[in-house]
Design brief:
The complex is a heterotrimer of chains A (344), B (596) and C (382). Chain B has helices spanning 2-20, 23-48, 56-72, 86-108, 115-133, 159-181, 184-190, 196-201, 206-232, 242-256, 260-285, 292-306, 311-318, 387-395, 417-423, 440-447, 456-460, 465-482, 497-510, 527-542, 554-560, 578-582, 585-592; strands spanning 149-151, 154-156, 347-358, 361-372, 376-380, 402-407, 410-411, 425-427, 515-519, 546-550, 563-568, 571-576. Chain B is α/β, with parallel strands linked by helices and 596 residues long. Chain B folds into three domains: 2-74 and 83-321, ABC transporter involved in vitamin B12 uptake, BtuC; 341-424 and 513-596, P-loop containing nucleotide triphosphate hydrolases (Rossmann fold, 3-Layer(aba) Sandwich), CATH 3.40.50.300; 437-512, no CATH class. Chain B has a six-stranded mixed β-sheet with strand order 8-9-10-5-11-12, sandwiched between helices. In chain B, strands 4-3-6-7 form a four-stranded antiparallel β-sheet, covered by helices on one side. Chain B has a two-stranded antiparallel sheet with strand order 1-2. In chain C, strand 2 and strand 3 (57-65) form a beta hairpin. Classes of the chains: A mainly alpha (344), B alpha/beta (596), C alpha/beta (382). Chains in contact: A-B, A-C, B-C.
């Protein structure tokens, strides 16, 4: 292996690592506030990418029907309580859960979105996929928000299964790619850096910084973290834990869908792509102790680099190498982190 | 009694099933049995031990591939030839799995918190891809034509014949697991989830307990794999991948991860549900799409919303609860050996210039004190003075930054709490650390852990009943001594806080210590209860025990203690007889504030 | 349980009504979900297009999904045999599942038609495999066509990159055997996973080995990834793919990076371009028309055609078997097996079938053509 190849592999590793980092960040975010290990995060990535791809081939994305269905379900569940609170609340509920999806449906069915400029298509794709986050929280997680971490994890597995199954139904078994945002590419010393990969790495970096500052330095961020440490205490302090949960899932879905839109030009996205990149993001998140954003991102990039180099050395054993090498990293991290025994 | 009758009926039904049911149902029951065996390991490991593992499928694969290779390979080396049959395959599989489990356990069980599940995912995936890449294991295409099992001359080709083997193995495993949990080793295992610090202070080797359950879970999985290989007579890597590992955990949690029968319930529900959905959904929705997985996911979410602890507790409530323990406190047994009691006045504990720093904060600043046999030393001071930190230092929970701690003439600073407990020191905790779901008797029996010897194999086969009854008798005695005889079968978490503190004292006494460290034992007790406690402590002192006591109740302390040490901001500010200390101006200033 | 009792009642009534009206039950096991879904879904869709009766008897197709898992495939097979009492099994879509099912069907003495690639499924025909037939061309045949084309084009060295599963593994086995025999040197042997987002490492290694041609052994759209990456990194040699990519989605994802790619395929892929005197043309176009009428223009998949061929084999064999025994009986299954083995000159969408006691596939070189990707579509060459 010469320097040239090492550089190319390193570049590949960093770009892939940045993709995993986007997932790692969202996973840390969701866990830090809700104690949910959000395995379906990868599905948001896939949904975002494939919804955009559907627009470009002139098809109606199935995620639209999901938005409508979730909207109806949330309305049915929340209607009694919100009516009791007041008419304003009920109107807001209807507005977001029924009127909004209806408007989007009309937009999509009416115009087909095929000939729209790319940017508007992206916005539309986000507009469909991102609201699924808080809706999912309301339907699947809010009723058991106080359950132990293991139960929340198993519910995540069940949600993941359902979403993957829906993904196959909506988008079929074959994958899709979308055209890049820009065709620019920069040549540095033999390395070709595409504009799209810069977008991905840039987005990751920006997110790390933003999330770090939000959660460490701002009051809102600390309030959100408080809900994970002690729900009852947080509520006594006036922090709405359900709002915290929904906000977090909204953010996570936004990160996910945006990631999907960013990576769709660089790689083929399938209905089940989400699981594997989510798993690698999960590795990164764990390396960060499910608490630290910069370390989680570093862990994800490490996975990307390991993957890249081991696929050069012994591609058939790539997974074996990557996952075996992760274990010493985990041991090291485990020794250097002080673990608080979780009381049941 | 009633629960035993129910189990008996269940076993009879199981035995009759293959004669009455159509063949496919027997096939399903076979698969249920195989999955339940793996899920049972997970109940032990995850539900009870608190160690989430996604990698059990890899061990199933090991058991399956070991026997598949040995029974079909063409050119086996000569030394392996005697193993080239199904039973040899089982032996090889078990040995291989045990070795790998011990290795992986040594690596990953040290991982705390969330690192452990990821560690299990990591080696689960590695092993799966290893299976797929090794040519001699058939690669991804797999190994076929595996010979059938022969039992007593009969070849088990038919699903109905195999059924009996699978279910006998499963029921045996259930029996072994239940025995294990209902024993001294079982108490140690049950302390793993939420009680590690406490258990170590009682002398339980929690690291070893973790390895033990990890090994048992791996061996159960290995046997399941062996049975699978000879049932299907074809193995390839796909049934041993991560998604199957996740599914086993799924079964355990849905069924009731903390309950042995939960494994069976979970395996049955998931298998039957999948089959049922496969039949029903095409009739409802037509054959165009694939809705099974979606419906499955939705149903599981629904189940977990309604039954967070799994289905078994819910099912068990339907059956009128049987008296799970013998009614009378009829725990008789020879008493366990007692430690020689040091003569009154022998120095037991000497702390010399102990310092504990947490970053920049000095919690203990050159603290010194000593406790002799037959004496009660009270340690008092305002909140935040560092008293509990000093306790943790002395008992080995946290090592001191510098300074020496001597117990019975030997240096113990820096040693683990388990080692120190074994030397004769026992303690209670400021924040009560009991296992709330276990009965009072069993919590106290945990204190006597070090006085037993019988290990895991004896426990699983229930060969240690004699020692167990002696341990429980000792626990019952201590409960009586502290006045809790009426509550020994109550769940420890159901008692009021004051009584829970008394349970902790009984537990500490069950360890037969010569030095007792009590952290605020009177907090939450009513007047008469405090009087009884004081009586008990006086009695213990008269028997030659040394007691180091942290308390805030001045009346309680001053009447009881022989000497008093006062701490403030990590330093000792006074020491002496109770009356002397009470009138010491520095002490008054520390508690009440100075007059400027 | 309820469903079972109901169907039992119906079966009872039906059998009382007269055994002359016994239905023929065909059990189908496909991988409609999981990694092999791109193979299984077109196959599943094809069964809906098959005739509802053969030889005057009603035919029921009972379709079960095995999720690309061997355990489920075996479980489904057992269910079809013991609960639904099928007369024949069609499936599964992939090699490991089909291999696992062999023992079960042999024990139940029921014929099975597999839709998977490996020759090992039917070869050698022994006591168990005498019950097993298959419709896809063997990976041996396809490999031979490829190697021939390569050597004819003057290629001396080739790099292999395939799926890290049974498909890629099987292809490598056969390809490397024939390549060695024909003195074609394999300079690299790389693997990648279906779901991988990047194959840069593998591609760099391949380029460093400077092969004359690349062979990508994957199925469906994931096989486009290595090719696109190679193009991106500037590889200028010849690109070969396998018949696993013979569907429109592959072309869609690969785009202009796939111009000039060569692959062996079943004739059904280029049915419209076959010469008019080719008997396969009519059968192939018939299938294409039916499938595209139901699922959209250009959506034909050669995998679906394997399922169609299984149907055609049955349509030819069942009338012969009906003469000997009634459906639902052991004798019928044995007769059906014999009838399948005795099929001669049956034209199916992938070729012309001549079965024998040693050959349970029955194809000759008419069953494969070389195809080139030109202007974003398949072009028949040779």
């Amino acid at each position: 292996m010469d320097l040239q190849i090492a550089l190319l592999l390193g570049q590949d590793g960093i770009v892939n690592g940045a993709i995993y980092a986007l997932l790692a960040l969202a996973l840390v975010l969701v866990f830090a506030v809700t104690r949910v290990i959000f395995i379906p995060q990868g599905e948001f990535v896939a949904y975002g990418a494939l919804t955009l791809a559907s627009f470009q081939t002139g098809q109606t994305p199935g995620t639209l029907w999901l938005l409508l269905a979730f909207g109806v379900a949330v309305t049915l569940i929340d209607a009694p309580a919100s009516l009791r609170i007041g008419k304003g609340r009920f109107m807001r509920l209807l507005g977001w859960q029924i009127v909004y999806p209806f408007v989007i449906t009309v937009l999509v069915l009416g115009t087909g979105a095929k000939d729209w400029p790319m940017l508007l298509q992206v916005v539309l794709a986000l507009a469909i996929v991102v609201p699924l986050g808080p809706q999912l929280y309301r339907l699947a997680y809010q009723p058991i928000a106080e359950a132990p971490v293991l139960v929340l994890l198993i519910v995540s597995v069940a949600v993941h299964l359902a979403l993957v199954g829906l993904g196959l139904l909506f988008f079929g078994a074959e994958g899709s790619r979308t055209p890049a945002f820009s065709e620019t590419s920069i040549d540095i010393g033999g390395l070709t850096i595409t504009g799209q990969s810069l977008w991905v790495v840039g987005a990751s970096a920006l997110l790390i910084v933003a999330l770090y500052f939000f959660f460490e330095k701002s009051l809102y961020g600390k309030a959100l973290r408080a809900t994970a440490v002690n729900r009852a205490g947080a509520r006594l302090m006036g922090i709405s834990t359900t709002l915290a949960g929904k906000l977090t899932f909204l953010l996570a879905a936004a990160i996910g869908a945006l990631s999907g839109v960013l990576i769709a030009p660089i790689t083929t996205v399938y209905y089940d792509t989400g699981f594997l990149i989510g798993l690698k993001g999960f590795v990164g998140a764990i390396v960060g102790g499910l608490a630290s954003y910069p370390v989680a991102a570093a862990g994800a990039v490490l996975v990307g680099l390991l993957e890249s180099f081991s696929s050069f050395w012994a591609s058939a054993f790539k997974e074996v190498i990557v996952f075996t090498l992760i274990i010493p990293v985990l041991v090291w991290r485990s020794l250097t982190t002080h673990h608080v025994e979780e009381d049941e | 009694m009633k629960s035993r009758a129910i189990v008996a009926v269940f076993v009879v039904l199981l035995a009759l099933a293959p004669l009455a049911l159509p063949e496919f149902y027997v096939t399903l029951l076979n698969y249920i049995g195989l999955y339940a065996l793996v899920a049972l390991g997970l109940v032990l490991l995850t539900g009870i031990g608190g160690l989430t593992s996604f990698g059990q499928a890899a061990f199933v694969g090991m058991g399956a591939y070991a026997t598949a290779w040995l029974t079909t390979a063409a050119n086996l080396p000569a030394w392996l030839a005697p193993l080239a049959n199904p039973w040899g395959g089982l032996l090889a599989g078990l040995v291989l799995t045990a070795l790998v489990a011990l290795l992986l356990g040594a690596l990953t069980l040290r991982l705390s918190g969330h690192y452990l599940p990821l560690g299990t995912i990591a080696w689960g995936i590695s092993i799966y891809f290893l299976f797929g890449n090794l040519e001699f294991l058939g690669g991804h295409t797999g190994i076929g034509s595996i010979p059938p099992l022969s039992l007593a001359g009969l070849e088990l080709r038919d699903g109905r014949q195999f059924y009996f083997l699978i279910w006998v193995v499963l029921l045996a495993a259930v029996w072994l697991t239940r025995n294990l949990l209902d024993s001294r080793s079982g108490r140690a295992i049950r302390a793993l989830k939420g009680g590690v610090v406490m258990a170590e202070a009682m002398g339980v080797d929690t690291g070893r307990a973790k390895i033990v359950i990890f090994l048992i879970a791996a061996l159960f999985a290995c046997v399941s794999g062996w049975l699978y290989a000879h049932l299907q007579r074809f193995v390839n890597p796909t049934p041993f991948g991560l998604h199957v590992g996740i599914e086993y955990l799924f079964m355990a949690v849905i069924g009731g991860a903390a309950h042995v029968w939960g494994a069976l319930v979970g395996a049955t529900l998931i298998t039957v549900l999948k089959q049922w959905l496969q039949d029903l959904l095409p009739q409802l929705f037509g054959a165009t799409g694939n809705f099974e997985v979606i419906a499955f996911g939705l149903l599981m979410i629904f189940v977990l919303h309604r039954a967070r602890e799994g289905l078994w507790p819910w099912l068990a409530r339907l059956v009128p609860a049987a008296a799970s323990r013998p009614a009378s406190a009829d725990f008789r047994g020879e008493s366990l050996g007692r430690r020689p009691v040091p003569a009154v006045g022998t120095p037991l504990l000497e702390v010399k210039d102990a310092v504990k720093k947490f970053g920049g904060l000095v919690a203990n600043d050159r603290m010194s004190l000593s406790v002799s046999a037959g004496e009660i030393l009270a340690l008092i001071g305002p909140n935040g003075a560092g008293k509990s930190t000093l306790f943790n230092l002395i008992t080995g929970v946290d090592p001191p930054t510098s300074g020496a701690v001597q117990f019975l003439g030997q240096r113990v600073d820096g040693q683990s709490s388990r080692v120190i407990a074994r030397k004769g020191m026992s303690r209670t905790f400021q924040h009560v650390r009991l296992l709330p779901a276990m009965s009072v008797l069993e919590n106290v029996a945990l204190g006597a852990h070090m006085r037993g010897r019988q290990g895991v194999p004896a426990a699983m086969l229930h060969l240690e009943r004699n020692e167990e009854s002696r341990l429980l008798a000792e626990a019952a005695r201590q409960c009586e001594r502290v006045g809790l005889a009426d509550h020994i079968h109550d769940a420890a978490g159901s008692l009021p806080l004051g009584k829970q503190r008394i349970v902790e004292i009984a537990r500490a006494l069950a360890a037969d210590p010569c030095l007792l460290l009590l952290d605020e034992p009177a907090a939450g007790l009513r007047f008469l209860e405090k009087q009884s406690l004081a009586e008990l402590l006086r009695l213990l002192r008269a028997e030659g025990m040394g007691i180091l006591l942290v308390e805030h109740d001045m009346e309680f302390v001053m009447d009881l203690a022989d000497r008093v040490v006062v701490m403030e901001f990590g330093k000792k500010i006074a020491e002496g007889l109770p009356r002397e200390v009470q009138s010491n101006p520095a002490v008054i200033e520390a508690y009440l504030g100075g007059v400027d | 349980m309820k469903l079972h009792r109901k169907s039992l009642l119906v079966a009872l009534l039906a059998s009382i009504a007269g055994s002359a009206f016994a239905d023929i039950n065909v059990g189908v096991v496909v991988s409609a979900t999981g990694p092999a879904a791109s193979l299984g879904i077109p196959e599943k869709n094809t069964f809906a297009l098959m005739p509802a009766s053969i030889g005057g008897e009603k035919v029921n197709y009972i379709i079960l999904d095995d999720a690309t898992d061997t355990t489920t495939a075996v479980k489904n097979t057992r269910k079809l045999l013991t609960e639904d009492k099928v007369d024949v099994i069609v499936g599964s879509s992939i090699t490991p599942n089909s291999l696992a099912m062999i023992d079960v069907v042999a024990e139940a003495e029921t014929p099975m038609i597999s839709m998977a690639a490996s020759a090992a499924i039917v070869d050698p025909v022994d006591a168990k495999r005498k019950w097993v037939f298959k419709t896809p061309q063997n990976d041996v045949q396809m490999s031979t066509a490829l190697v021939e084309h390569m050597t004819n084009a003057g290629i001396k060295t080739v790099a292999f990159i395939g799926f890290a599963d049974a498909y890629g593994e099987g292809w490598y086995r056969e390809f490397s055997k024939i390549a060695e025999a024909r003195k074609l040197q394999i300079v690299a042997n790389e693997r990648f996973n279906r779901a991988d987002t990047s194959v840069t490492g593998q591609v760099l290694k391949i380029i460093a080995a400077k092969p004359d041609a690349i062979l990508v052994a994957g199925a469906g759209t994931p096989a486009a990834l290595p090719q696109k990456t190679l193009k991106e990194k500037g590889y200028k040699g010849a690109y070969y793919q396998t018949h696993g990519v013979a569907n429109k989605d592959f072309l869609r994802v690969c785009g202009k990076d796939c111009e000039g790619t060569l692959l062996p395929a079943g004739p059904v892929l280029v049915a419209a371009q076959l010469p008019a005197d080719n008997p396969i043309k009519k059968v192939a176009e018939d299938y294409v028309a039916k499938y595209e009428a139901a699922h959209g223009k250009g959506n034909t998949s050669t995998f679906g055609a394997h399922a169609w061929d299984a149907g055609l084999l049955l349509q030819n064999a069942i009338p012969v078997a009906l003469k000997k025994a009634k459906p639902g009986s052991k004798e019928f299954k044995a007769a059906l097996r014999d009838a399948l083995e005795g099929l001669k000159n049956v034209t199916v969408s992938h070729g012309i079938v001549n079965m024998s006691a040693q050959d349970h596939l029955g194809f000759d070189q008419r069953a494969r053509v070389m195809v080139k990707v030109e202007n974003g579509d398949w072009k028949l060459i040779k």
